[in-house]
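To illustrate the input format used throughout this study, we show a single complete record. The first block contains the structure-token representation of the backbone; no residue identities are included at this stage. The design step must infer an amino acid for every position from geometry alone.
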């Protein structure tokens, strides 16, 4: 396999910096959240944003689409939304004097889908996204249709405590690379918003790169080197989320799937590139562990009664698992670069 060279990394990093600068002008005081969203996209993953209404989740996604110049469609998820409303439906049309069903693509046929308030739709409609998010295609009446490349779902959801929400199925949660929590702004940030924005006025977003430049960055991310020791650390970290495998996992009913390990690897490589390195490191994995794992584990009843949170359990697991063990290979950097 060909690995990314330092020259390739140096070439694409300025474009990533331009994207970060553009997005920090959309959402004030949320640089860490913005970096994680960008890492999620660079890792070719889908991102779930959770937070109370009005915190800027939708504006963040809309700003991303403008910065990247990608074709974007927005779906407002409501209780009456049907699966065909997002995947598309066959429509009876007359072609060459004969009537036949012709497939009419739905809003999923785009590069970036904004699934707004995804947990307000019924579980049946939520499940219609499963095939699209995993296989980048949809099947309607036995016929499979490929989605455009690249394809991302950036979904927003309100906390489950709010009225009119349905919990996302575990199978669909597992399709999201990251679950990110959008928190409220500080008083200083609110002052900045009041001074620089008006109610109902959208921020002006500069396009940071062309779509083909974004595709080039995705290819460089794929070539970032993942050392054996980091892969071993990822495997042990995911294993530690299962009951009986670590002390912290005693609070969990279920652990993470193998898809969590693949997600950690992809996101670690994306973060390494963002930090101008051709090699993923332990620190890359540790920094994105909570975002990858928090929606892939399930607290048991006793933990919920005791007030233990998922974030606390993930933090304990990360603290418990050492970077290396005596059996771990010592190779950290690739050769020939």
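Output of the design step:
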């Amino acid at each position: 396999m060909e690995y990314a060279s330092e020259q390739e990394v140096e070439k694409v990093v300025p474009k990533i910096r331009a994207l970060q600068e553009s997005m920090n002008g959309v959402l004030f005081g949320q640089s860490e959240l913005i970096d994680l969203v960008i890492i999620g996209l660079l890792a070719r993953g889908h991102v779930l944003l959770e937070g109370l209404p009005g915190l800027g989740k939708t504006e963040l996604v809309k700003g991303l689409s403008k910065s990247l110049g990608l074709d974007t469609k927005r779906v407002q998820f409501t209780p009456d939304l049907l699966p065909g409303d997002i995947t598309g439906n066959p429509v009876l049309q007359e072609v060459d004097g004969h009537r036949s069903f012709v497939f009419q693509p739905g809003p999923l046929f785009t590069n970036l889908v904004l699934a707004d308030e995804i947990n307000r739709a019924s579980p049946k409609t939520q499940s219609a996204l499963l095939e699209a998010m995993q296989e980048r295609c949809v099947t309607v009446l036995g016929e499979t249709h490929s989605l455009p490349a690249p394809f991302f779902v950036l979904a927003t959801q309100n906390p489950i405590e709010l009225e009119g929400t349905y919990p996302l199925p575990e199978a669909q949660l597992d399709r999201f690379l990251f679950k990110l929590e959008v928190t409220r702004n500080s008083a200083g940030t609110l002052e900045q918003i009041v001074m620089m924005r008006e109610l109902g006025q959208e921020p002006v977003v500069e396009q940071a790169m062309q779509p083909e430049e974004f595709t080039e960055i995705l290819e460089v991310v794929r070539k970032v080197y993942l050392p054996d020791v980091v892969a071993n650390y990822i495997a042990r970290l995911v294993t530690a989320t299962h009951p009986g495998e670590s002390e912290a996992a005693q609070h969990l009913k279920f652990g993470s799937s193998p898809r969590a390990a693949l997600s950690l690897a992809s996101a670690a490589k994306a973060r390494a590139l963002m930090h101008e390195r051709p090699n993923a490191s332990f620190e890359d994995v540790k920094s994105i562990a909570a975002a990858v794992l928090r929606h892939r584990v399930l607290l048991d009843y006793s933990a919920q009664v005791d007030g233990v949170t998922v974030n606390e359990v993930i933090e304990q697991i990360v603290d418990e698992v050492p970077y290396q063990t005596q059996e771990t290979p010592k190779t950290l950097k690739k050769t020939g670069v």
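Structural context for interpreting the output: The CA atoms of residues 72 and 147 lie 13 Å apart. The chain has a mean pLDDT of 86.
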